[in-house]
Design brief:
This protein has 15 helices and twelve strands. It is an alpha/beta fold and 462 residues long. It has a single domain, classed as TIM Barrel, CATH 3.20.20. Helix 2 runs parallel beside helix 4, helix 6 packs parallel to helix 8 and helix 8 crosses helix 11. The longest helix has 25 residues. The termini are close together. The structure holds 6-O-phosphono-beta-D-galactopyranose. 6-O-phosphono-beta-D-galactopyranose binds next to loops. Keywords: Glycosidase, Hydrolase. InterPro entries: GH, GH_1_N_CS, Glyco_hydro_1, Glyco_hydro_1_AS.
Length: 462
């Protein structure tokens, strides 16, 4: 296929709590992720001495990052998306001063990337926040969190201003609707009104972080991060189409606020119709006016929407309760595979916002088998990624401004939804199972060589 733009960034994306391990090293505090041993939808289990969780070591990236980064460099990465664990910088969340050991760790990580000419893209909060802020302040439901987050953001912008020029605020900010503890630090049974108030505080904090980034690092760009949950109507019945519009708006709302600087009318109506009162002050309104520089999103699947309640009932409990699309195949985890949907979504987002787009997650979670020859023959992963990247190329041809592509989990890591290691995304295999057995040794899969060629030819080999 035609080569991608010269400036296109190629790479992968990881998150601190899914790779680092070392959960009690360097003065790190306990995060919400540390007390969710069964993943982002799982219940809270407060840590007792001696408890063991798969994330405690994860893939030991905290200690092994030089080796892993050199493997990324071997594939030709020009970008690596990482996150900073907020609890390494502010262990409880409400300290006055940042923890030097945490800052020093990320200093060395960014230096290592610079050695290999890999541009870091840094998420401020990827599915974790200090557990102290949940226990003692009630999570994002409490307005005080805005100031704590701003202090954290300003500290890392100031420290890393010469090393990091691409930033993201909250990972998949719209996930708070489905996993409140993971997103906004609220109990899973919180009311819609409580969740939207907490989301509002987070949106204000996100805008204040954008403002701080612009002040402290004028040559940086900072984006939001959405779970790109594109929905199709199951049929062409007008009721299905209307409901699809509303479902898509339930997540696009976050992008609307972050790109346009105010709440859209349809959301205010939703609040009115559902008796939801959100406390939005004049200074919140002013803060929201600072908008992001680019939009980033994850893309794994699409789903369908129907007004037929019986079909909806059957779909409850599926991932995000989506009605399956009869025309698509699914991954082993029931995620429906839809490369063309990525082209549609890129076009939709470009049409809606006219801001540059960055695909910061995409990939196939699968059970891999390490062969006797020390590799994994993951043709299924190659074909998934190839098909999606072809559609990215088509969207670029459609005139969409795409900055880059960082696929999810270029090295096997702990899954967010189930906290298991057997759901693998990587080009690099990690010898560790769900019980924590294994040497943690790394091995190149077949897809490693495939991706290397894609990057070397700037998409020409797709
Ligand atoms: C996204 C998250 C990631 C990641 C990915 C894959 O929602 O931002 O953290 O894990 O999904 O999901 P899973 O790990 O559940 O397969």
């Amino acid at each position: 296929m035609k080569a991608f733009p010269e400036t296109f960034l190629w790479g992968g994306a990881i998150a601190a709590n899914q790779v680092e391990g070392a959960w009690q090293e360097g003065g790190k505090g306990i995060s919400t992720s540390d007390v969710q041993p069964h993943g982002v939808f799982g219940e809270v289990a407060e840590r007792q001495p001696g408890d063991f969780g798969i994330k405690d070591v994860a893939i030991d990236f905290y200690h092994r990052y030089p080796e892993d980064i050199s493997l990324f460099a071997e594939m030709g990465f020009s970008c690596l998306r990482v996150s900073i664990a907020w609890t390494r910088i502010f262990p409880q969340g409400d300290e006055q001063e940042p923890n030097e050991a945490g800052l020093a760790y990320y200093d060395s990580l960014f230096d290592e990337l610079a050695k290999h000419n890999i541009t870091p893209m840094v998420t401020l909060s990827h599915y974790e926040m200090p557990w102290g802020l949940v226990k003692h302040y009630g999570g994002w439901g409490n307005r005080e969190l805005i100031a704590f987050f701003e202090r954290y953001a300003r500290s890392v912008f100031t420290r890393f201003k010469n090393k990091v020029k691409l930033w993201l605020t909250f990972n998949e900010i719209n996930m708070s609707l489905h996993a409140p503890l993971t997103g906004v630090g609220l109990p899973e049974n919180s009311s819609k009104a409580e969740i939207y108030q907490a989301i509002h505080h987070q949106l204000v904090a996100s805008a204040l972080a954008v403002k701080a980034c612009h002040e402290i690092i004028p040559d940086a760009r900072i984006g939001n991060m959405l779970l790109g949950g594109l929905m199709y109507p199951l049929t062409c019945k007008p009721d299905d189409v209307l409901k699809t519009l509303q479902e898509n708006r339930s997540w696009l709302f976050f992008g609307d606020v972050q790109c346009r600087g105010e709440y859209p009318g349809y959301m205010l109506r939703y609040f009115r119709d559902n008796g939801i009162e959100v406390d939005i002050t004049e200074s919140d309104r002013q803060a929201l006016k600072t908008t992001i520089d680019f939009i980033s999103f994850s893309y794994y699947m699409t789903g369908c929407v129907t007004a037929d309640e019986e079909l909806n009932e059957k779909a409850r409990g599926n991932i995000l309760s989506m009605v399956p699309n009869p025309h698509l195949a699914s991954s082993e985890w029931g995620w429906q595979i839809d490369p063309v949907g990525l082209r549609i979504l890129l076009n939709e987002l470009w049409d809606r916002y006219q801001k540059p787009l960055f695909i910061v997650e995409n990939g196939l979670g699968a059970k891999d088998k390490l062969e006797a020859d020390g590799t994994v023959h993951d043709d299924y992963r190659i074909s998934y990624l190839n098909d999606h990247l072809v559609q990215v190329g088509e969207a670029i041809d459609d005139g969409v401004h795409v900055l880059g592509y960082t696929c999810w989990g270029p090295i096997d890591l702990v899954s967010a939804s189930k906290a298991e290691l057997s759901k693998r995304y990587g080009f690099i295999y990690v010898d560790r199972d769900d019980q924590g057995n294994g040497t943690l040794a790394r091995a190149r899969k077949k897809s490693f060589h495939w991706y290397k060629e894609v990057i070397a030819t700037n998409g020409g080999s797709l």
